[in-house]
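Deliverable D4.2, example record:
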Amino acid sequence: MSFSNFGFIPPIGKAISRINYSNPTPIQEQCIPVVLSGRDVLASAQTGTGKTAAFCLPLLDLVANKPKHKHKRNISPDVLILSPTRELASQIEQELKRFSHFMDTNIVAVVGGVSYKLQNKLLKSNVNFLVATPGRLMDLVRQRKINLKHIDALVIDEADRMLDMGFIPDIKKIFESTSQDQQVLMFTATLNKQIEKIAQQFLKDPQRIAIEQENKSNKNIQQIAYPVADYNQKKLVLVDVLNEADLNQAIIFTATKREADRLSDELYLMNHRSKTLHGDMSQRERTRTINRFKNNEIQILVATDVAARGIDVDDITHVINFDLPRQVEDYIHRIGRTGRAERKGKAISLVIDKEKFMLQKIEKYANIKIEIIKSTHSTSDVSLVYKKKESGFKKKRRSTAGGKKNDKFTASNKRKKPGFKADAKTKAKPRRRPVKKNIKPQATAS
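Output generated by the structure prediction step:
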């Protein structure tokens, strides 16, 4: 099947040919006809499968075929696209501009970290596509700079990430600001009961589309784990990885912003072209850093999970988990930054003892087997990676079973032993001493 089968208007077909798109991906093949029909969609597919084009292309066609409406009082876009992060919003904006290269379409992105004055200026003209993060959009709605009553379509992209970041209450308020009659499209990388429950609040009889793979991670990505004992061993193994001959560009993920800054500074002192990317940076700094990374001016990007989605750079050869993520789904999104456009990539995890059970969860969730390699810098036992985690009940039972029978002091004896402080469960209620009453002797008759 080719894109010509969808019957797009000529300007869109010309733009598709210009960017050398040949055949639609499975998510595009199933989504585009449903979106063109005007029906609500709940779609799930892993990162890097072309979800953005799956809703951008048909919505561009629908907007182009609808009569123009001018709302004089304040801005009312034709399509509203909600994104969890600034980076993903910027990526969607760029994709829309590529697909509408031969069309007269006004596309505006409003995200946090950018001057309100500049965004208000962009919103004065008629906007066809508004790409926004929930927080900044809520501010503009409260200021009455945007009217959402006349939108024709609402797209909620990366709904699972929205849930993780706590944006669902804001999305509910945004939805209440609309006419609630518009077409609603919800896209997610992972589909679970929570997402299903959220979808029931926004979608009406949606077409469910799930592109599931037996192996949830990209087959072009080689996945390796190095067991290490501490931070210093992590850093030694990391330096070896960064010196590999096949490394072109790499993203290193850390658990905290402070650790990202610290690690980036240490790598810079080792003459690596490194830079940090996290949520405390202004939008201007983040955009400048991403553009420099795309232009290969920066070789190593040290980031938190804010960059796990929304960075599309084909030349990334390595993704390094300096710290494993807290959620197994985030591992898939992290490593999805490499192995794109049918290229080969490596995903390397540096795993300390307390993270080894998370590694087992990742293998089970993604239905993969991660290769374990012992580094010369590591003193950690590789066999512990495969050790089964013992439940808390069994662990407690095993630890108390040995000494319980031979203990000379039972719960009652512990209370009697002088100087022993019994816990709340074994503490006996104190006996109430009888109160001696001063009874006066009765006078006897003489």
